[in-house]
Amino acid sequence: MGDGSITPRFGNMKALLGIVAGAGASYGLYKLISGGSFKRNKKSAATQSPGVRNRETIDVTLQPGSLLARVSGLDVVCPRPVDVASADIIHQSPGNIDPQHLKMLLSCLQTSNNPPDRCRILLTLGNCAAFTVNQNLIREFEGIHTIAGFLSDPVAEVRVQTLNALNNLCMNIQNQEHIKIYVPQVLELIEMSPVNSDLQLAALRLLTNLSVTDKHQHLLKESITLLLSLLVVTIEELQVQTLKVLVNLSSNPDMMDDIVQAPAPASVVLLFDARTAPAVLLRLLTFAGNLKDWRPSAQVADELRRKQDCLFRVMLDESSQLHSRLVQLLSHPDGEIQSQVARILT
Questions:
Q1: Which of 99, 75, 79 is nearest to 91 (CA)?
Q2: Among 59, 183, 259, 319, which is 20 to 30 Å from 291 by CA?
Q3: For 228-251, what is the mean pLDDT?
Q4: Cα separation of 277 and 226, whole Å?
Q5: Which residues, 6 or more positions from 231, have their beta carbon under 8 angstroms from its beta carbon?
Q6: What is the 3-state secondary structure (H, E, C) of the chain?
Q7: Range 50-59 burial, b when 16+ CB lie within 10 A, else e
């Protein structure tokens, strides 16, 4: 949708800015209409953790403590008032955005040829999707499939914002029925993206929400090895997110056969160490506890022992190093970790 069709509909630029400002994107849409582009700042190498690639981030100002600033880690564009008269409109709640404005955003998304503009629109839609009423409206407008179409966008930042928007939409159970068909594409993004990238993190967040209930967990049964491999090559933030998915899956007894026979890197067991970050170690112990609660028959156990490098042999077999490592963790300074270890060993 170009300038000529938007401006007459809403009268003037102030009105248009007011429409989407509550969704945290007035400045971004102003740039979209005016043909401008938003700036990106590259983080300096000095501020990056070792082994983490430099990432480009949208130059925005967050509203500290706001709801949207906490939802799925999405950045929120701070509205910039055009004048005093429009200030009240600009600070509307994203939950009060009108249906026709959501339609307009989806239409703009489909017609935009500019990657920064697509990012800004997806960011706005993602912020709107933090509210149930908008989650339902976007689904009814077939917006889920419109948004998901950008999972294959050639620009990485567009794919990240697409995943973030789908993640918020996924908090709605009805929306999950529409989003589940994109699981293979999301898994491919994880596998093909650079290690420790924003793309991997955003994709894992989406899979976490999708795997909270048992209904769609079977869609991930072929991805166990991929998830286990991520544990040994990624930074803490991605390890935590990966373990959230694994804990969800291992909480379902129907998934256990697929989990224990999946090929697993032997180095997974090395993470059960006092030097591992507590946030990672606690979830590892929860995952291990779920595995320990599984009781295979003698015949099944014998069959699994013949599967070289499967998770059963790495973590559950008598030959595994896990038991000795758990004993060492009984002296961990974190009391919660001690309790988790004691529960597994008893």
A1: 79
A2: 183
A3: 98
A4: 21
A5: 239, 242, 243, 265, 268, 271
A6: CCHHHHHHHHCCHHHHHHHHHCCCCHHHHHHHHHCCCCCEEECCHHHCCCCCCCCEEECCCCCCCCHHHHCCCCCCCCCCCCCHHHHHHHCCCHHHCCHHHHHHHHHHHHHCCCHHHHHHHHHHHHHHCCCHHHHHHHHHCCHHHHHHHHHHCCCHHHHHHHHHHHHHHCCCHHHHHHHHHHHHHHHHHHHHCCCCCHHHHHHHHHHHHHCCCHHHHHHHHHHHHHHHHHHCCCCHHHHHHHHHHHHHHHCCHHHHHHHHCCECCHHHHHHCCCCCCHHHHHHHHHHHHHHHHCCCCHHHHHHHHCCCCEHHHHHHCCCCCHHHHHHHHCCCCCHHHHHHHHHHHC
A7: eebeebeebe
Residue 57 has phi, psi (to 5 degrees) of -125, 150
Q: How far apart are alpha carbons 339 and 345 in whole angstroms?
A: 10
**What does the pLDDT read at residue 308?**
84
Residues of the chain with CATH 1.25.10.10: 1-210, 224-346
The CATH class for the domain spanning 224-346 reads: mainly alpha
Query: By the 8 A CB rule, do 125 and 106 touch?
Result: yes
CATH topology of domain 1-210: Leucine-rich Repeat Variant (1.25.10)
Rounded CA separation 113/119 (Å): 11
**Is the distance from CB of 336 to CB of 282 less than 8 angstroms?**
yes
Mind listing the pLDDT tens digit for each residue in 59-102?
Answer: 333 344 333 333 334 333 333 332 332 223 223 456 667 899 99
- 157 residue type, one letter: E
